Amino acid sequence: MILAVCIKRVPDTNARPQVAPDGKSINPQGIEWVINPYDEFAIEEALRLKEKAGTGEVVGVSVDPDGNESILRKALAMGVDRGILVKGGSMFDGAVTAELLAGVLKNVKADLILFGKQAVDSDSYQVPSLVAHHLGLPRANVVTKLEIQGTKAVCRRQIEGNEELLELSTPCIVSCQKGLNEPRYPSLKGIMAAKKKPLEVLEAPPIEARIEILKMEPPPPRPPGRIVGKGREAVPELVRLLREEAKVI
């Protein structure tokens, strides 16, 4: 069984990104780059499925405009068997990323392709579905439980107010949600082994961009809080402010 995991490099969620001087990108100075947190659930699930089967291969695939290998090396340290890095694309153009990933995954011929449900920098949610479209594969998003039963993937996914049970024929695509598992940390042995694992670097073919970033700017500063009174006497004034100023009710 071949399991492919698609991984993205994102800024640490505890970082405070600054806009670069060009006004169209993030200043990399002082930014710690990490595996997209939702992708860690995908990596862990692939490793567990391989361990349960007792055989197979886990392939990590990443598209990175800078050709940065750091997150794939971490994935290899977690237990991924080999990595494929596509140098090119864009951090925020999901359509281009999906096309590049589909081109690689077509040759990997995985039985199961795993994604995180979203990237925490762009929050577009679109890449897993676009890759499924390009490859003509069934897919399930926001999955919180996954079982492989022969040639079928049985998925439980979140829907509003309830849970949905899906049965997909493999090969298929699954995007992973928090709660699916608890990702492991790389061990010292794994870190040392990762240095010898194969990591193939490919140059991205030219693909027309679908998105152009015109401008980036930080969000406006939050206004200071106000105390409108104490106890029940303050309720009418609080309601008025919420309705007339905040416009949330």
Task: Tell me the layout of helices and strands.
Blueprint: E1 2-7, E2 9-11, E3 33-35, H1 37-53, E4 57-64, H2 70-78, E5 82-87, H3 94-108, E6 112-116, H4 127-135, E7 139-149, E8 152-159, E9 162-169, E10 172-176, H5 188-194, E11 199-203, H6 235-244
How would you describe the overall organization of this protein?
The chain is α/β, with parallel strands linked by helices. The protein has one domain (2-203): 3-Layer(aba) Sandwich (Rossmann fold), CATH 3.40.50. It is 27% helix and 27% strand. It is built from six helices and eleven strands. The protein has helices at residues 37-53, 70-78, 94-108, 127-135, 188-194, 235-244, and strands at 2-7, 9-11, 33-35, 57-64, 82-87, 112-116, 139-149, 152-159, 162-169, 172-176, 199-203. The strands form two sheets. The protein has a nine-stranded mixed sheet, with helices on both faces. Strands 2-3 form a two-stranded antiparallel ribbon. Helix 3 (94-108) packs across helix 4. The chain is globular and about 70 Å long.
The N- and C-terminal alpha carbons lie at a distance of 53 Å
CATH superfamily, called what?
Answer: HUPs
Q: Choose one word for the global shape.
A: globular
The third-level CATH topology is: Rossmann fold
Percent helix range: 25-40%
Mean pLDDT: 93
**Strand line-up in the sheet with most strands:** 9-8-7-10-6-1-4-5-11
Question: What structural class do the secondary elements suggest?
Answer: alpha/beta
CATH class: Alpha Beta
